[in-house]
Amino acid sequence: MDTLLTAEIVASSPQFRRKSSIFVDAIHDLPEKADLAPAQLYSTESGRLFHSGRIVIITVGLPARGKTLGVKTRIFHLGDYRRATIPFGEDMPDDYFYVNATASSVLLRQKIVRKCREDIYHFLNHENGQIAIYDAVNPLASGRRSLAKEFAKHDIETLFIESRCDDERIIEENVRRVKISSPDYVSWNPEDAIKHYLNRISSRIPQFQSMEEKDLNYIKMINAGERLIVNNRSFGYLSNRIVFYLLNLHIKSRRTYFARAGVSVDADSYKSDVSLSEKGEDYAKKMTECLLAHREAEKQAMVAQGDTGYEPRSLKVWTSTRRRTVETARYLHEKGYKVRQRSQMSQLNPGVCEKMSERRIRAEYPDEVSKHELDPYHHRYPRAEASTSYHDLAVRLEPIILELEREQNDLLIIAHESVLRVLYGYLMACNAADIPFLEFPRDEIIEIIPESYQNEAQRIHIPNLPEEIIPASPEDLKIPVPASGVVSPMQGLGTPADGLATPQSGTRTPREPERISQQHVEDVV
Amino acid sequence: MASSLPPIQSDDSKICVVMVGLPARGKSLIAGKAMRYLAWVGIPARVFNVGSYRRNNTPQPQATFFDPHNEEGERMRRAAAEGALSDMLAWFQAGKGTVAILDATNSTKERRKWIHEQCTAANIETLFVESICDDEDLIMTNILEVKTTSPDYKGQDPELAALDFRKRIRNYEKVYETIDDGEKKYTYVKLINVGSTVIINQIKDYLSSRLVYYIQNLHIKPRSIWLSRHGESEYNLTGRIGGDSNISERGEAYASALPELMRKSGIPENTKIVIWTSTLRRTIQTARHLKAETSFEKLEWKALDELDSGVCDGLTYEQIAEKYPEDFAARDEDKYNYRYRGGESYRDVVIRLEPIIMELERSENVVIVTHQAVLRCIYSYFMNVPQEKSPWMEVPLHTLIKLTPRAYGTEEQRFKADIPAVSTWRGKGTSAKHQDFPADGNEQQK
């Protein structure tokens, strides 16, 4: 046995649960009637990646997050089941969380776990689910083994993910961040909050055995991703993707900005890759000035607040390989900012519908229009050669998303609106069905600020732009879905709070996102 | 057009991948594959093999040379390491590379510390890759490979070579120190028994994480990969590129012949094979009979779709030469980097194929039915074809290519179906009409 492993295991550090910002796989969360699979990279009839099988990810000491794994994912918080079983106001047995609980508490616990497991089976067997995330602390090796056995009986692969931290500095910093944004500590004194939080973590988990079961599939994350230990018994495709994803995770307070490309000479052709028009040049200049002024003002504000530790991060620029986006970055390039072209960030290809008016599209392709309206996220216009759906685009953008997670600098992304929709949808955990309707007027730069519970977005207004270039790009194929009532603000975590910057078009009611609950109590089973 | 745009920039970080491990642990295999992968994605990489430096002075040393108490041997091995490292630093200095792979045992902490210091001083990141293996069968396979292929034992009795090699390994074992907590400041990855346990420490940049992910996906189970273009399409007949046409009558004949051709190429018994196609009609139609007759599972990948020729989609090469003469010439000039107006370049195709390559490394037996440009890119990865050549490679229609990866290099076999088809191959500087493929199966003139 490696000394390295054993050293980690005996380290009796407090467990900490990293609070994440985004909880569902929103990009690929599908409407029920989707006729195309939610599969990443390829499609199958069942809607699952068949060479991967169904997986339960079981958390060991960390909260669940299921970002862009590309398949239908749902999180099952054991805490929610406990709360549903033991109604609010009613007392929980004192020994509920203890290992040596009384028989009645053990029975209660088993009942709650069973209900949760049944829901997982239902999701995986009858709702085309591919990944279920079972969120509980799962502190004991024996418990984990029996869980794996139980799921194996149902032909479901298990992957345990454990998070450990023995670096006081990281714990402190994380608690500080959590303290600021956790609703639990709204009116608390910061020092008390930290103390209370740390106390709660260690007292809730009386006995904890770090994962060392060589017969199980597991990933152990140590000190927020500094070290990863992967025990691969039988990893499938998705388990490997998860490892890569975890490799690229890190918590940083860097900013991501989104800006549209300027308008071009012949704006309504997708195929001809043309240069910026005069107005486009003007936009590029104003956008650059506006962004740099905003960053400067932010820096001044930090200094004025006496934040001596503030270090401005450098800014990088990514564009697509299309001329308009590259030329929009020209002023930044001239000022010495590093500009990278990313071929994956090319816009959606509208296929046959290029250059056609909406009326003509409706007349010539009525079937396609109704298909598009049913599922604008997955629908591809005909001329299959190059025509892309939002889903195809999201798949193509996956490497970009991973790199985005890894980037240490601030980043400006200049791209076509369709690309911005998908990237924004990822960072802000929008519902897949809403992604095609996100709007990015040209007179706004979107700034995304990472927070522990949810990323925040704000809009920076670019002044003095001519009216006609502001609205959605004319080359963009748009078939508005008929209005169906009032716009309801999206609720729940992982989406921006009301009034914040979700650029939602007013023509459609967004689907209620899956309810996600955030837990502040550690559930031990 | 494309040439007027700023060049694609790479990130500044330079990485030295330092292999760590006893002999016969697959270090050279990992190093070689990683280099091929990096070259394929366009990252300049080179392997610096300390053994080949040592061979300059001691071409065929005995095991005693590697005894830690042999001062002379120790001194010469140290000199070889210094030679490799200083050449590597000079290579970075000259701006030639992004990733260097230092292939040696690097089995002591002292040696690793020295490498780390040298690299840090030159502003190069280090990534230690340790391969640990206690599976006797795996080690034996590697020893067999070494005694038959290593220049150290060239021309020697294989049995004696194996014996000597085992002695050499024992000498290394005397001083071997695995990477442990004392080295936790380093960026490292430990692979235990070909990735069954992997420990990844302090990965800081994206390129390293990609490399680690790649290495983690490697396996050494025997398998083959079959490549085929779609059967002749209606567009092929009229010489048009792109599109989403159906296969022609002759294309259909190829589709019917494909199952038999697969059998002829040799399918190991009780083997699970998966069929991959693009999302375009012509590949799906071509794989139809194979799927029906064999009941292999089938996947359709968007990433396997043909290179997008943008405005030129649906035109013949002659029409392109007439309508876009400058573009046509520019494409001949640098076919790999030329991006069709509103379409893709070969470089773009390689980028979108990267997940496919990762998946192929992870998979076992796979049949891929795809398109000319995509097939050239995949083939180039396995056969290490340089970028200047890959876009010009001839990949005839109605031919099945079987690739079988071996420890050092990939074995290729071609099986031609006796079904005529047009040739879609175009020589540099010509707008030659597609020609009928010579029915006798001779290579046509280039």
UniProtKB/TrEMBL annotation, chain A:
What sequence ranges are listed for the domain 6-phosphofructo-2-kinase? 45-252
Entries under Gene3D superfamilies matching the protein: P-loop containing nucleotide triphosphate hydrolases, Phosphoglycerate mutase-like
Q: Which UniProt keywords apply?
A: ATP-binding, Nucleotide-binding
What's a single GO MF annotation on this record? ATP binding
Residue stretches of biased makeup (Basic and acidic residues): 509-525
The biological processes this protein is annotated with in GO are: fructose 2,6-bisphosphate metabolic process; fructose metabolic process
Any one GO CC term of this protein is:
cytosol
> What are the boundaries of the region Disordered?
488-525
Q: Does the keyword Acetylation apply?
A: no
| InterPro entries xref list | 6Pfruct_kin (IPR003094), 6Phosfructo_kin (IPR013079), His_Pase_superF_clade-1 (IPR013078), His_PPase_superfam (IPR029033), P-loop_NTPase (IPR027417)
PANTHER family per record: 6-PHOSPHOFRUCTO-2-KINASE/FRUCTOSE-2,6-BISPHOSPHATASE, 6-PHOSPHOFRUCTO-2-KINASE_FRUCTOSE-2,6-BISPHOSPHATASE YLR345W-RELATED
Q: What is this protein called?
A: 6-phosphofructo-2-kinase domain-containing protein
Which species is this record about?
Answer: Penicillium angulare
Automatic annotation (TrEMBL), chain B:
Record protein name field: fructose-2,6-bisphosphate 2-phosphatase
The annotated regions of Basic and acidic residues compositional bias extend over: 433-446
> How would you classify this enzyme at the top EC level?
hydrolase
- Span of domain 6-phosphofructo-2-kinase: 10-222
Chain residues that bind substrate: 229-236, 282
Active site location: 230, 306
Q: Which GO terms describe its molecular function?
A: 6-phosphofructo-2-kinase activity; ATP binding; fructose-2,6-bisphosphate 2-phosphatase activity
User: Which species?
Assistant: Penicillium angulare
Source domain of life: Eukaryota
